[in-house]
């Protein structure tokens, strides 16, 4: 699979997350980076040989527009929430792999529980491609933010689970094709 990289100027100071450990890292303005992935709502960059994740809300720091937000219908029936959640989860990407977390097979469960007032609580079990991946919290936070933006979702719990351990057999056919497997 051929990957294209785009050189970009970092035109203002910005905080990014170092991959794979998720540690915040400050980048000064005036340096150069390469965009290696612009999927979902974040950008993956290489800066001085280090892979980092730039939040889409900071896209202007590299001269880009913030990625479009997932649009949801205003009047959502409870019966439609599950499908909306799964579609939303497909907009979350591992910063090192150009495949969404659903097609990677990282989402093990997505259940809904009714809440008072007619909203639902989303219960999501997900894993990581490697138990020691430091980006787990960042990915889980993105899942929480995006799912809570869905009408009728009042609460969310994301559990990181490692049993059963993830392996390539959990990937969808489209993920395998995208990764040349």
Report on this structure:
By secondary structure, this protein is of the alpha+beta class. It folds into 2 domains: 6-62, SH3 type barrels, CATH 2.30.30; 78-178, Fe-S cluster assembly (FSCA) (GMP Synthetase, Chain A, domain 3, 2-Layer Sandwich), CATH 3.30.300.130. It is built from 3 helices and 9 strands, in the order E-E-E-E-E-E-H-E-E-H-E-H. The strands form 2 sheets. A 6-stranded antiparallel sheet has the order 1-4-5-6-2-3, with no helix packed on it. The protein is globular and about 50 Å long. The N and C termini lie close together (10 Å). The relative contact order is 0.16. The mean pLDDT is 92.
Provide the fold topology.
Blueprint: E1 6-9, E2 14-18, E3 24-27, E4 32-37, E5 42-47, E6 50-55, H1 78-89, E7 107-114, E8 120-126, H2 136-148, E9 153-160, H3 173-178
Structural classification: alpha+beta
Percent helix among the residues?
10-25%
Order of helices and strands: EEEEEEHEEHEH
**How are strands sequenced across the largest beta sheet?**
1-4-5-6-2-3
Gyration radius (Cα, Å) is 17 Å
CATH superfamily caption of the largest domain: Fe-S cluster assembly (FSCA)
The CATH topology of the largest domain is GMP Synthetase, Chain A, domain 3
Gap between N and C termini: 10 Å
Strand count, sense and barrel status of the largest sheet are: 6 strands, antiparallel
Form type: globular
Q: Which stretches are poorly predicted, pLDDT < 50 over at least 5 residues?
A: none
In the CATH scheme, the class of the largest domain would be Alpha Beta
- What is the CATH architecture descriptor of the largest domain? 2-Layer Sandwich
How many domains? The number is: 2
Q: In percent, how much strand structure appears in the residues?
A: 25-35%
Number of helices: 3
Mean pLDDT: 92
The total beta strand count reads 9
Domain MIP18 family-like: 85-158
Protein name: Putative Fe-S cluster assembly protein SufT
Organism: Simplicispira suum
